[in-house]
Amino acid sequence: MKVGDKVSFINEKMNGIIKAIKADGLVAVEIEDDFIIDALAKDLVVTEVFMNEKTAATEEPVPVTSLSKEFNLSTNEICFVAIPAEKHKTLTGYIGYYLVNGTDYELLYLIHSKHETEWNKIASGTLGPHNAVNVLTINRPDLTDITSFHIQLLISGGNIIHHPVQKEISALLPDLANSNKNFPDFAAVASLVNFNQADDAELEQLRIKYQSEKKPVVSAPKGKTQKLNDTGAILLNSKEVDLHIEKLTKEHRTMTNAEMLELQKSVVRKEMDYAIVNHFKKIVFIHGKGEGVLKNEVLKELAHYSNIKVQEADYARYGGGATEVLF
After folding, report:
1. What is the bridge-based pairing of β-strands 94-101 and 106-115?
2. Parts of the chain belonging to CATH 2.60.40.1600
3. Where are the CATH 2.30.30 domain residues in the chain?
4. DSSP labels for 232-263?
5. CATH number attached to the domain at 64-194
6. What's the CATH fold of domain 6-48?
7. Distance (Å, whole) CA 269 – CA 200
8. What is the pLDDT of residues 214-269, one digit of tens each?
9. Which of 7, 78, 269, 272 is 20 to 30 A from 21 via CA?
10. What is the pLDDT of residue 260?
11. Under 8 Å between Cβ of 69 and 185
12. CA 157 to CA 148: how far, in whole Å?
């Protein structure tokens, strides 16, 4: 049973078309006069399968050329996009959610929607390079049941082994205030992976290489310093990185806890790769004391690296709220 299927009610003389799959076994059914009601899936029987629906798990993604939307598929980025299903209905009507692959890589993806505390799978499958797939089309009123989407990606291609991607993002909505040159019709766009940033491509390759062969450490000339940058460089071969979310982005008030933690972990990976490439001797990650959630995630990220020593940073200076890495 899926969106577009024609159904009959078992206990009533009534027919309709499924418009959305909801939580707790409910589906939205459009009956006569375009009236939409909620019904239990167990009380319905499919009378005609919607054969034109392209589902990611069983068929090829809908070719973007056949869509009414014009996406830029050469952004070197993987995005989750919400766009009006019909033109001139930016603030009303149905919304189409798309996974857009603007890279040279192939994706294996799994997407869930969150309904209060329950997760429901909405799409899974593979997506080729420079392509897009519609993973969900839903009426705006039904979005009140969805609080967020959870997206998992495995990326394949070239001679690089990529980190698995796992992100939770809020339920995006097209809005007249949105503006993105790559996606029309006031689309809302969430970037999942951006290969225009070094961390997602060549630095990843360098990190893997470092795991198999130890890099020689080149000490900086004594007394030589460089200007402080946004990541808190102290010496030429030493760096201090503050992971407090307000130091990393101005948008933290609109982010979920999962999104903030994912950004902080991404910064750890970027800074570690940068330190390796530039032969640093030491890097300090300031995570604060708190409940230790961020500290534990930092330690998990550092466990992926070989030939390093991880210890608590100077207590007198950081008060137990920082971790030091020695190369």
Report:
1. unpaired
2. 64-194
3. 6-48
4. -EEETTEEEEE--HHHH-TTGGGS-HHHHHHH
5. 2.60.40.1600
6. SH3 type barrels. (2.30.30)
7. 10
8. 444 434 433 333 434 444 444 557 889 999 998 888 877 888 888 888 889 889 98
9. 78
10. 86
11. yes
12. 29
